[in-house]
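fold description:
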Amino acid sequence: MLILLSACTQHHQTTVVRFAIAQAPLNLDPRYATDAASERVNRLLYQRLVEFDASSKVIPSLADWQALSPQQYRFTLKQNSAPFHHGKALNADDVKATYDSLLALKDSPHAAEYRNIAAIQVIDSRTLMFELKEADTHFPEKLIIGILPKDLIVKGYDFSHAPIGNGRLKFVSWQGALVLQHVNSGKKVILTEVKDPTVRVLKLLHGEADLLQGDLPPELVKYLQSKPQIHVNTGQGANFSYLGLNMQDPVFKQLKVRQAIAYAIDRQAIIDKVMVGNTRIAGAILPPEHYAGNARLKPYTYQPALAKQLLQEAGFELPLKLVYKTSTDAQRVRFATILQAQMAPAGIDLEIRSLDWGTFFEDVKQGKFQLFGLTWVGIKTPEIYAKAFGSAYVPPNGFNRGRYIDAALDTLLQKEDWQAATQRIHAQLPYIPLWYEGQFVAYRTDIKGYMPAADGNWDRLVNFN
C-alpha cells in the first residue's frame, strides 16, 4: 500500500484551508447532534455559556454565573458578545429560547439532561435566572448547548443543514463539501468527507488537501512523518473507545458472557497494530487524570482460555455466535477483523456487519444491534456516567444505548459517588472498555500552529495560520 503513496507536491497558497475528514457531520443543530463530526463542527459555529479548562474544570465562556443556592443560578452574559451570523445581537432571550426549545423537544437526545430546569427567567438583556426542581451543584457544567437565535427558533428554522450561530466560523454552504468561513479574516475552511484513509493521505501529499486529523492507521502516520512537505504532531488522547452491548439481548444479560468478551480481547496487540502512538488501555469513560477519574480500575487482560470457560459455565454451546456492527470506515473494519480473530480461540464466532455511517449510527440509537464499536468524544464531566448508564437515559431520553438497567448503579449515580459508580460499571460491564485514542494531526508545511487536542476537537481551525 505504501508503495502506491508516491506523491508530487503542488504549491497551494490561498485563503482556503482544505480539511479531509473521515466522516461528514450528520446534524448541525446542537440540540440534536451526537456524532463526533457534528459536535466538532458545532463548536466552531456556536458559542456556549460555559467551557472547560485543561483539567476539565468548568469555566465561563459566553457568561459568568453565580450560585444563589443549589437550586438557583444567575448567569450574566459578557459584554460585547459576538452577534449571530445573520446580524442579530445575542442577548438573554436567545439563551432562554435555546433551552426552552430544547426542553420542549421530544426527540432530542440531550433533552433529558435539562429536565431538572423548573423555569428560566430573563432579568434583563444580559442576565437570566435558572430555577431548578432539585439541587444540583454541578448545573453550570451542563450548559454546553450552542446558543441559537430566538427569532429563528420561533420561526421553526432548520439549523441541521444551514446553521446560524455566533461562533468564530460561519456556515457558507453544504453541497458535498461543507464550507465554513472565518467571521473576521474571511478565510474559508472546506471540510470534505474522504472515507478511505489511503486516499486521504494521497490527497494531502498531492496538495489536494491541506490538513488531516485522526482516523489513520499507524503505518500511514509513520509514512507521513517521513515526508518533508508534511508536518505531523502527536499527543495523548482522552477519547474513550468501547464495545457496546445490547443489554436487552438474553445473551448479554448473563454477566459471565460479558466477562468472557472482556477477556477475549488483546487490547495491547490491537493498539500496537491499529492505533497511533500515545493510545492507552482504558478502564472507564473518563481517564485517570480527570478529576473524577478512577486510577484503581484494573484492565481486563487477554485470557481466551478463561473466556471460553466462562461461556461454558454460562451454559452456551461453543462457538457462541455474535453479530458485531461497525461503520464502513477502513480503520474500523480492520479493527473488527482483528477482534474477530482474537475472539475465535475464546469460543466466539463473531460475524462482522459493516454499514454506512448514517445507517450504522441510526441502528445504534434505535437498539438494532447485538454488539457495536464506538468512541465517546470530548467528554468533560462525570455526569456522562448517568447519561450513558442511568436507567432514565435510555434513548430517546439520553445515551444509554445499551438499555442497561441497574438500580444499584442508579443510586450511586444519584449520590455522585463517581469512584464507586465507575467501579461497579467496570465490574458489571454494560460496555467493554478498550482504550483512549492517541491524537495526531498531519498538515502541509504552509500551515503553522496546529496542535491536536486531547479530545480530538477541531477548535484550532479558528486560530491557526
Summary: Residues 1-14 have pLDDT under 50 and may be disordered. Residues 330-343 form the longest helix (14 residues). The CA atoms of residues 13 and 446 lie 8 Å apart. The two ends are 32 Å apart (CA to CA).
